[in-house]
Sequence to fold (220 residues):
Amino acid sequence: MNTQDLIQHLPARAAFSAAKMTKLDCFRSRHLLVGLNCFEPGQEQTVHAHDGADKFYFVVTGKASFTIGDMTLEARSGDLLLAPAGLPHGVARALERTVVLVAIAPAPRA
Amino acid sequence: MNTQDLIQHLPARAAFSAAKMTKLDCFRSRHLLVGLNCFEPGQEQTVHAHDGADKFYFVVTGKASFTIGDMTLEARSGDLLLAPAGLPHGVARALERTVVLVAIAPAPRA
Fold:
């Protein structure tokens, strides 16, 4: 990767679509995927799980209702949400325009 | 881990010491360590590297001067800094009270 990519201002990298939530990669290796998930109000991410990989969400800006296991949790800027391997997780509904930092270790296949 | 630990408001978890920067774990597995590094103004983290593990810093609040490889980068809230395996990195100096989310994959030994 280029040295200029070693620092990224995430609010400036966020990109939104009226059609559905968007994803973009910030870093990818065998060990780690780091990316952004960007939501317009009302958009969602379907509940899913990663076998053998641990994941977290960190809400950079905005507010959304997350599903973690059998819980529904409203989270806002500054909140970390953990989805250890195998635990179903998703975003039930963004309540505002929302930018979420996501990390998955090890990285899923591209 | 307890289900109540699956969501953590990171600014509320931050803890500072007048003596030196502090570290605390938010999540630890074989694949992933997630934690906070907390700095009072002027505090530092010595430059170091992780063989075989990829790391990132995300500045939650504050502003600090980071070392990444041979670069010195001033970063503020919203900035992601990447330190792929083997690349030296550290915090030269916190310019304000600063809280940094840190992830390392795979996790170093406790």
About this structure: The radius of gyration of chain B is 13 Å. The longest helix of chain B spans residues 10-13.
